[in-house]
From TrEMBL:
Protein origin, superkingdom: Bacteria
Keyword field: 4Fe-4S, Iron, Iron-sulfur, Metal-binding, Oxidoreductase
Protein family according to the UniProt entry: Belongs to the prokaryotic molybdopterin-containing oxidoreductase family.
Annotated region (Disordered), positions in chain: 112-155
Record-level Gene Ontology MF annotations: 4 iron, 4 sulfur cluster binding; electron transfer activity; molybdenum ion binding; molybdopterin cofactor binding; oxidoreductase activity
Domain Molybdopterin dinucleotide-binding: 703-822
Annotated compartments: Cell envelope
Originating species: Dietzia lutea
GO BP annotations listed: anaerobic respiration
Entry protein name: Formate dehydrogenase
Length: 858
């Protein structure tokens, strides 16, 4: 965190000064490790085993927060007798289809006649694609199902209740197994376990902070699930000082998922409709009209979004212009897109603030896709590798590509940087903060808002006389933002006001609870509703924390409803009393609200303000009315925190440790099942797959490398290695190796090394350091190599792209490539040049038995 998020790390240091214990778990010893109380080296890709060991410790030592778990989780819920765990099926859950590599969720459901999945669950296959397509996307955890009145056992003794299943599932994750799998000494593991349990419970809380790299595995979503299970058991969700912090930074990653740049999401985490399964608005909303919890208002969120986009053209008679909405026809993630570019060619591509030729897994594949387009639009601060690959890319040097054969027409538009434009950033705690423009952008550089507004305006003008129905969505699009005075720059606050939403009278809305399903309200993102309440830019507030309470509600604005801790109703017990005064946050005051009772807090209570703790929903209640007064997790249809997920995850209702797809290590926990069986494999040109442990040729790639950031550089490097003063601080691409590996391979500090996989080979300066610790994994020594991923061929400081080494194998839930643990070889000296590099890599492929057109192994 100190390395990649140094500004946010100041709060960790504040906590340490107040007595907090800081533990850093990472393959490398970093700046964070140096300031932590304990650094725990771990094998890259083994975190579920580590977290699973902590869960097992909590359960076997009876260290869980008993009252919290019984009251606020689904621990007592009984699972149907058809369910079989990985303990029963040698690393698989019930319902797995080996040929399709997908799970049927039917056997995972709660016991009870009302808890069967409907005919169309979230796992149906799309007839237009080889792979299953999510019905419900990232919102699928609630899609088309119910957990109404399941059978429970409040004693937690029933063999099929979630609590007992959890105990059995994690029973093999012992400290000794953690040592075998992760390389963490038993005494170090127990030290972490004691620190965590002693700082959790009624009087204390503990938090997890993770960087984006925790998600970049084929089991990345399950990493977060494991941490969530652990935090629920310890009572660390919804309480001050607890939680799981997904570290987000300058790039506004949080904002880019709220107002999404993801293909399968609409603003506010609404799923992108599926063309085959959701042809009209009613089929899109599905059973959510009868859903319990706040997803029961999904029609209001969706209709308000459609009204924001198409205004008067969105009417009840035309399904509020639902037909205008783009829809999924298959997999449209970045990997599928690049494969279509490689295999089919043609079409166009926009790259905005992204440099896939350097910054994305399998750079060689990325560049091959770019070279097969009709046109490419690049907006960036400088000429990045993805814009001039056609003349300077590595494949030009090797002879794989010739400039004169590349037909891609590249349009490069200079972009304004973050101090040259105004707008919001959204950070880790969901806090929107308005950035005021400091200086004018130079020359022809313009903001993204300027670019897209004027692009849309020109397209609408060109099509103004069209009678083709396919042009109506664009022509009817609301596109009437005012300009900044005396300029042609659209007013960013007007866009924020549209996102906030307006009511029937045209006035700004104050809360998403005001949204209606009848088309009388418009809102560009329901979770952001209130950011422009009363016509005031709430994100621009900057009242000092010294002038307000500890929650500081008047510094920026947090979604939803300016709430700073999600699910904070869980900070009080079922009767509405704080679990402890030391950790008091929200409480029920029976005298507040004119004597009718009300939830009170320095924060905005994450609960209906006047719903009493003893409220019991009437039969047949839907939406928020179906959530009881002692059910704090209001976005879940049962109001509970899920230790076990009966739906919504493509690879299991519980996390399980699987090896990275290319691992030199066997899976000690499930010996018959190495990699995630449901992972998304995308075989094809440029995406060669290496053998894993036990396969012929696996010993050709005996080491593991992991990629990471440096403080001195930023993501793919365009903003940093083009600057002399940052390049001077980190002047060359390097690899970190232990002294033991250096001796084994003849590597010299400051000299050169070549790192090779089945995709490519790169060279790096050698940094011999004890920051990389050799680990004992199941009786053998495993060496890990550290590679920062910032370098490319352009700029003041240049070097080979580390991501050229990576394959494209994906998490089945969110299609993120696994980039943090891949097998490799390392040899002393510089890599070959020109066509000799291809011959060098091909020799490795021959030795390892890698085929140029990889198949799909089972």
């Amino acid at each position: 965190m100190a390395e990649a998020h140094p500004v946010g790390f100041q709060w960790v240091m504040e906590a340490k000064r107040r007595g907090a214990t800081i533990i850093h778990v990472d393959p490398r010893f970093t700046r964070t490790s140096a300031l932590a109380d304990l650094h725990v080296p771990i094998r890259a890709g083994s975190d579920i085993a580590f977290l699973g060991g902590l869960i097992n410790h909590v359960l076997t030592t009876d260290s869980y927060f008993h009252e919290y778990v019984r009251a606020y989780t689904n621990a007592s819920t009984i699972i149907g007798e058809e369910f079989l765990d990985t303990e029963d099926l040698a690393g698989l859950f019930s319902g797995f289809d080996i040929e399709d590599r997908t799970y049927d969720f039917e056997s995972w459901q709660y016991e009870g006649h009302e808890n069967d999945l409907p005919d169309e669950s979230g796992s149906g296959a799309d007839e237009s694609d080889d792979e299953p397509t999510e019905v419900g996307g990232a919102a699928g955890a609630r899609a088309s199902a119910t957990t109404t009145d399941p059978n429970t056992d409040e004693t937690l003794q029933h063999p099929r209740c979630v609590f007992q299943i959890l105990k059995r599932h994690f029973s093999r994750y012992t400290p000794e197994m953690v040592e075998r799998t992760c390389g963490i000494a038993t005494e170090d593991f127990l030290r972490v376990a004691r620190a965590l349990t002693e700082n959790s419970g009624r009087e204390r809380t503990a938090a997890f902070c993770y960087a984006v790299g925790w998600t970049q595995h084929t089991v990345g979503v399950q990493y977060i699930r494991t941490a969530a299970i652990l935090q629920l058991l310890l009572g660390n969700i919804g309480r001050p000082g607890g939680g799981i912090m997904a570290l987000r930074g300058h790039a506004s990653i949080q904002g880019s998922t709220d107002i999404p740049t993801l293909y399968d999401l609409l603003p506010g985490y609404l799923p992108t409709p599926n063309a085959h399964h959701q042809p009209d608005l009613d089929s899109y909303i599905g059973t959510d009209d009868e859903a319990q919890g706040f997803w029961g208002h999904m029609r209001s969120y969706t209709v308000s979004l459609l009204k924001a986009w198409w205004g008067d053209a969105a009417t009840p008679e035309n399904d509020f212009a639902y037909d205008y909405m783009p829809k999924l026809t298959g997999k449209h993630d970045s990997t599928a897109t690049v494969q279509r570019q490689v295999n089919e060619g043609g079409g166009g591509y926009f790259l905005v603030g992204e440099n896939p030729a350097v910054g994305t897994a399998n750079g060689r594949m990325q560049r091959a896709g770019l070279a097969n387009l009709d046109w490419l639009v690049v907006r960036d601060l400088v000429m990045i590798e993805s814009a001039d690959f056609w003349k300077n890319g590595p494949e030009i040097e090797t002879g794989e590509m010739r400039t004169e054969d590349i037909g891609t027409e590249v349009f490069f538009f200079p972009a304004a940087n973050h101090v040259e434009k105004k707008g919001t950033f959204t950070n880790t705690q969901r806090l929107l903060q308005w950035r005021h423009q400091a200086v004018e952008p130079p020359g022809d550089a313009r903001s993204e808002l300027w670019f897209y507004y004027h692009l849309g305006r020109r397209l609408k003008e060109k099509l103004a006389d069209s009678t083709d129905p396919r042009d109506r969505p664009l022509l009817d699009l609301t596109w009437d933002y005012p300009m900044e005075h005396g300029t042609d720059e659209p007013d960013a606050e007007a866009v924020l006001a549209e996102i906030n939403g307006r009511g029937p009278d045209g006035e700004p809305l104050s809360a998403f609870t005001q949204l209606k399903p009848d088309g009388s309200t418009a809102c560009g993102c329901w979770i952001y509703c209130g950011v422009y309440a009363d016509g005031v830019n709430q994100a621009a507030r900057r009242r000092s924390r010294h002038e307000q309470g500890p929650v500081a509600p008047e510094w920026g604005w947090a979604w939803p409803a300016n709430r700073r801790i999600l699910y904070n109703r869980a900070s009080a017990d079922p009767e509405g009393r704080p679990w402890s005064e030391r950790k008091a946050y929200v409480r029920w005051d029976p005298e507040a609200g004119d004597g009718a009772g009300r939830w009170v807090s320095d924060d905005v209570p994450d609960f209906e303000a006047d719903k009493s703790p003893d409220y019991i929903p009437p039969d047949g209640a839907v939406g928020p009315e179906a959530i009881g007064g002692a059910q704090p997790f209001i976005m879940q249809d049962d109001g509970m925190g899920w230790l076990y997920a009966p739906r919504g995850l493509a690879d299991g209702p519980l996390p399980a440790h699987y090896e990275p797809p290319e691992s030199p290590v066997a899976n000690p926990i499930y010996p018959d099942r190495d990699a995630n069986p449901a992972r998304s494999i995308r075989p094809g040109r440029y995406n060669e797959t290496q053998p894993s442990h036990g396969d012929p040729g696996a010993d050709v790639f005996p080491f593991v490398f992991t990629t990471y950031r440096l403080t001195e550089h930023h993501t793919a490097g365009a903003m940093s290695r083009t600057l002399p003063y940052l390049s001077e601080l980190q002047p060359e691409f390097f690899c970190e190796v232990s002294p033991e590996l250096a001796r084994e391979r003849g590597l010299v500090n400051g000299g050169w090394a070549t790192i090779v996989t089945a995709r490519s080979a790169i060279e790096a300066r050698v940094l011999v350091t004890r920051r990389m610790t050799p680990l004992q994994i199941d009786g053998r020594t495993l060496h890990q190599i550290g590679l920062p991923y910032h370098w490319g061929g352009n700029g003041v400081s240049i070097g080979d792209p580390a991501n050229d080494l990576l394959p494209q194998q994906l998490d089945p839930n969110v299609s993120i490539p696994a980039t943090k643990a891949t097998s490799c070889d390392i040899v002393a000296g510089r890599r070959p040049r020109g066509p000799a590099l291809l011959e060098f890599v091909e020799e490795y492929r021959r030795r390892a038995g890698v085929t140029p057109e990889p198949g799909t192994e089972s």
